[in-house]
Design goal:
Number of strands: 0
Order of helices and strands: HHH
Keywords: Membrane, Transmembrane, Transmembrane helix
Strand content: under 5%
Number of domains: 1
Oligomer: single chain
Low-confidence stretches: none
InterPro entries: MFS_trans_sf (IPR036259)
Helix content: over 70%
Shape: flat
């Protein structure tokens, strides 16, 4: 569990503020969003060891992949619509 917690901390605290800065949020919100995200992520992090042996691994991995895909889709949509660009060759999403 320590390895997973380390990954959550590195990604959430290092890349999160940079992404939120690109989206135009204030410095206080740049730090607040990863803290909230890591606090929310702590709940499934603590519950997972209790239920992991009760469900098939392939089903748990499938649900995890779907959740990751949804999260990345939302992140890409936010960045595509909010971050300014100098690339005028490609049309921007409405």
């Amino acid at each position: 569990m320590l390895r997973i917690g380390g990954v959550l901390m590195c990604v959430g605290l290092h890349y999160g503020p940079a992404i939120y800065r690109l989206l135009g949020y204030s410095p206080s919100k740049q730090l607040l969003f990863p803290v909230v995200w890591l606090t929310v992520a702590l709940i499934p992090f603590l519950i997972t060891p209790l239920i992991i042996d009760r469900f098939p691994r392939n089903r748990l991995m499938g649900v995890g992949m779907i959740c990751c895909s949804i999260s990345l889709t939302v992140l890409v949509a936010l960045i595509a619509n909010s971050v300014p660009t100098t690339n005028h060759d490609e049309p921007r999403l409405p």
